[in-house]
């Protein structure tokens, strides 16, 4: 059997769907985020949110990337605990939105499309 050679004219497609593994990794990160939030470990929380961003970054839009820069600056420039908490909450919710936009977040039951047949 001849060796497969990379051909840039053909679309690259993995034998395995990595989206499933990405969802598992994200789920583990979100579990840690919840623990860190409850423990008020804001440094750890920001770090874990950055890990989630790293998972989502490659499929993020240019607008998403620009908005994340603004949120990150807001976190860096926070002058008190309330501002830091507010900026971290923005980052958290924004990452949820990106995850949903990429089809990796929650999906809702649509009774019109459900079928056992």
List the helices and strands and how they pair.
Blueprint: H1 18-38, H2 42-57, H3 62-76, H4 81-101
Helix pairs in contact: 1-2, 2-4, 3-4
Low-confidence stretches: none
Q: Any idea what the shape is?
A: globular
What is the rounded distance between the termini?
A: 40 Å
Helicity, as a percent range:
55-70%
Q: Whole-number average pLDDT? A: 85
SS content category: mainly alpha
How would a crystallographer describe the biggest sheet? Answer: none
Number of helices: 4
Strand content: under 5%
Instruction: Find the count of extended strands (DSSP E, 2+ residues).
Output: 0
Provide the succession of SSEs.
HHHH
Rg, alpha carbons? 18 Å
Give keywords:
about 120 residues; mainly alpha
At a glance:
By secondary structure, this protein is mainly α.
Can you describe this structure?
- The protein has about 120 residues and is mainly α.
- It is globular, with a radius of gyration of 18 Å.
- The chain is built from four helices and no strands.
């Amino acid at each position: 059997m001849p060796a497969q050679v990379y051909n840039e004219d053909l679309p690259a497609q993995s034998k395995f769907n990595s989206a499933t593994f990405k969802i598992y990794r994200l789920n583990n990160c979100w579990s840690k985020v919840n623990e860190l939030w409850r423990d008020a470990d804001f440094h750890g929380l920001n770090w874990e949110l950055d890990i989630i961003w790293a998972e989502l970054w490659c499929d993020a839009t240019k607008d998403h990337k620009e908005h994340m820069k603004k949120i990150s600056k807001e976190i860096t420039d926070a002058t008190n605990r309330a501002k830091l908490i507010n900026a971290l909450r923005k980052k958290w919710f924004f990452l949820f939105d990106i995850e949903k936009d990429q089809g990796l977040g929650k999906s809702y039951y649509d009774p019109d499309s459900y079928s056992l047949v």
